[in-house]
Design goal:
With 529 residues, this protein is an alpha/beta fold. The protein is 53% helix and 10% strand. The chain is flat and about 85 Å long.
């Protein structure tokens, strides 16, 4: 007999078996008990949270010959036929591959006939957001006034793609992400029933990696068991299979960052690359590690907010003494920006190395939090009594002063522009944050901390201060997206170009019209031929 995957073998067969969706289960059971059954339901939520499973259980319950407390008995002929997929009254449709108008017309023809057994004909349409516009329109009338014996259950992971006209005709149920504790407890029961030896710590890590999806947790467990079949499944085994990193490695990396040891940070990353760890997952896990450090620094009773052993909590407390909350927020910001960039990057290792160098050398950035970290470093130096000679002090000040601080020492330069160029510049500058936010994707991540400057008639230039962001932002497709957005929303044809900011370059130039510049100059102006 062929092997059955755990997520299929342990699919819930009754409402009592469903985990983490008690608010939905109780509502559906009450409807069945009181015979107040609706004609259309919309189940929405992330993958692996039980939408299709509950839909099948509900289909059995409304047709069951001997329901008990709103749940199907599972023993009658109707329940067995539905469970085996042999019932003509329960039709499951995958909208991803059956998304045309003709598929919906077939359903409209079928609903004219009453069920051959049981009380209801149930249509479960999975991934309903994949239906075409024509298919949705064809479904509307049937969905609004179906025969009394027909129930529609629509399931989707992207509810925002469902037309409002369909949403208004359905009872909507939002499926929550399942908690780590609930998933871990279910995995424990499952492994005991399957007689699989596994460490509880390993199950907890699998539950965390599933990100609220029970099906994902079962698939990950299946993968780990297959790799270490017939032996105790340990926490280290799970880390090896999933390409994850142990918390002690994050502690070593964090200590190197906090002590500004750039070489040690790069060496730590090199070790993870050699071990074959997945770099995207490493960045996500390190952000979570920094989050835990920030929780310890900010909350009195932090133990209840962190799902980890007492030993690891003690290690976190030691590490938390190396940085203040403001510095931790800066670390989280840098790595969160990095996480967005990695989605579209081919050289992930290079971007991570650049981010680690930023963490250990705050003078490379001109943000408020990096300047604050540098000031605190100077304060610590003063407290420790280490003073520099006059020549050394001036050299150090020049190296540590960012461009933003130097700009405050001298007034901004005023540059005159023709009236038309000035209007285009002011229009785009005033809405620049809104433009990159609405464009989203890689543009939103890479166009932070950019400045727009004039570049000629109906032409603007975007100035980048970060090399990696400039590489992404200077692509022809990215520039075309911005130009198209500006033309659609502002009815202006403006060409865009990009450049990288030079060292020590002023970024606070004030642009005014020719007339305004002349009005503010208190002397006669002679225009030479």
């Amino acid at each position: 007999m062929s092997y059955t995957a755990l997520y299929r073998k342990w699919r819930p067969s009754s409402f009592a078996d469903v985990k983490g969706q008690d608010h939905i289960v109780q509502t559906l059971k009450n409807q069945i008990i009181s015979q107040r059954i609706g004609h259309a339901y919309l189940f929405c939520g992330t993958r692996g949270t039980g939408k299709t499973s509950i839909a099948k259980i509900f289909a059995k319950a409304v047709n069951c010959e001997q329901p008990a407390d709103g749940s199907p008995c599972g023993e009658c002929r109707t329940c067995r036929n539905i469970a085996a997929g042999a019932s003509l009254n329960v039709v499951e449709i995958d909208a991803a591959s059956n998304n045309g108008v003709e598929n919906i017309r077939e359903i409209r023809e079928q609903v004219q006939y009453p069920p051959t057994e049981g009380k209801y004909r149930v249509y479960i349409i999975d991934e309903v957001h994949m239906l075409s516009t024509g298919a949705f329109n064809a479904l509307l009338k049937t969905l609004e006034e179906p025969p009394s014996y027909v129930i529609f259950i629509l399931a989707t992971t992207e509810v925002h793609k469902i037309p409002v006209t369909v949403l208004s005709r359905c009872q909507r149920y939002d499926f929550k992400r399942i908690t780590v504790e609930t998933i871990a407890e279910h995995l424990k029961e499952l492994t005991q029933a399957e007689q699989i030896q596994v460490e509880e710590k390993a199950l907890t890590y699998i539950a965390k990696s599933a990100d609220g999806a029970l099906r994902d947790a079962l698939s990950l467990l299946d993968q780990c068991i297959a790799f270490h079949y017939g032996e105790l499944l340990t926490y280290d085994n799970v880390l090896d299979v999933l390409g994850a990193v142990d918390i002690t490695v994050f502690g070593r990396l964090f200590r190197a960052v906090a002590q500004n040891k750039t070489k040690d940070c790069i060496a730590c990353l090199e070790d993870m690359v050699i071990q074959g760890r997945e770099l995207g997952q490493f960045v996500v896990d390190f952000i979570w590690y920094l989050r835990n450090l920030l929780i310890i620094k900010s909350v009195d009773d932090a133990e209840n907010l962190m799902d980890m052993s007492t030993e690891n909590q003690n290690l976190l407390r030691e590490d938390s003494n190396l940085a203040d909350p403001e510095t931790l927020l800066r670390y989280i910001r840098v790595f969160s920006d990095l996480s967005n960039q990695l989605r579209y990057a081919s050289q992930k290792r290079v971007l991570i190395e650049v981010a680690l160098i930023k963490l250990t050398r705050p003078q490379m950035e001109q943000n408020y939090d990096s300047i604050l970290q540098r000031i605190k470093g100077i304060e610590k130096q003063l407290e420790s009594g280490t003073f520099l000679q006059k020549g050394e002090a001036s050299a150090t000040a020049e190296a540590s002063l960012g461009a933003g601080e130097a700009e405050e020492l001298t007034p901004a330069q005023r540059v005159a522009l023709p009236q038309g160029q000035l209007e285009d510049l002011n229009l785009i500058r005033s809405d620049w944050g809104k433009i990159i936010r609405e464009l989203g994707g890689p543009i939103r991540a890479s166009f932070r901390e950019t400045v727009v400057e004039p570049a000629g008639e109906s032409r603007l230039c975007v100035v980048f201060s970060d090399q990696s962001n400039y590489m992404i932002g200077s692509r022809e497709t990215t520039i075309a997206d911005i130009e198209r957005y500006v033309e659609d929303h502002y009815k202006k044809s403006i060409a865009f170009q990009t450049r990288l900011k030079g060292g020590g370059e002023r970024m606070d130039t004030i642009y005014v019209s020719d007339e305004e510049l002349k009005a503010n100059i208190l002397m006669d102006i002679t225009i030479e031929e």
